[in-house]
Specification:
mainly alpha, 2 domains, single chain, about 0% strand
Length: about 140
């Protein structure tokens, strides 16, 4: 396994171990002698590949991956498949710095102001068109 896939394996294993420590029912499934984390990863990779529409890159949420990992340990008759040669990347939530948060806030304010300005200009154009289209009455003649 390469480094990124190894990181994926450790991430899944850490979650499953924590869940087993908190959930006695899952702990029984997680400790089955015929189950292991390497086969779990192989199962997950085959499952992810089956979700792909023919492209090379697949994006899955953490929830999807975790639910399939739990499914692997819960089910006794599950086909794992042969090990795959691929690279897996784990994306974690990013924490923004205070400076990045301030910049994002300023950008949101600028976008909001621009949108409000467009709305006002659109209203003014519509009002101007209505004034220009006022039909004279009989008394104007």
């Amino acid at each position: 396994m390469n480094k990124t896939t190894d990181h994926f394996k450790r991430t899944i294993q850490a979650y499953l171990e924590q869940r087993a420590a908190e959930d006695k029912l899952f702990a029984a499934s997680y400790s089955k002698p015929n189950k292991n984390i390497d086969e779990c990863v192989t199962y997950l990779l085959h499952w992810a590949k089956s979700q792909c529409d023919g492209g090379n890159a697949i994006g899955m949420t953490g929830g999807e991956v975790i639910s399939q990992a739990v499914h692997y340990f819960d089910e006794d008759d599950i086909e794992v498949g042969k090990p795959l040669q691929c690279q897996v990347m784990v994306c974690h939530d990013m924490e923004l710095t205070d400076e990045e948060k301030a910049e994002a806030r300023q950008q949101a304010i600028r976008q909001y102001q621009a949108e409000e300005l467009r709305k006002l200009q659109s209203r003014n154009k519509q009002a101007t068109k209505k004034e220009a289209q006022v039909q004279p009455s009989l008394f104007d003649f």
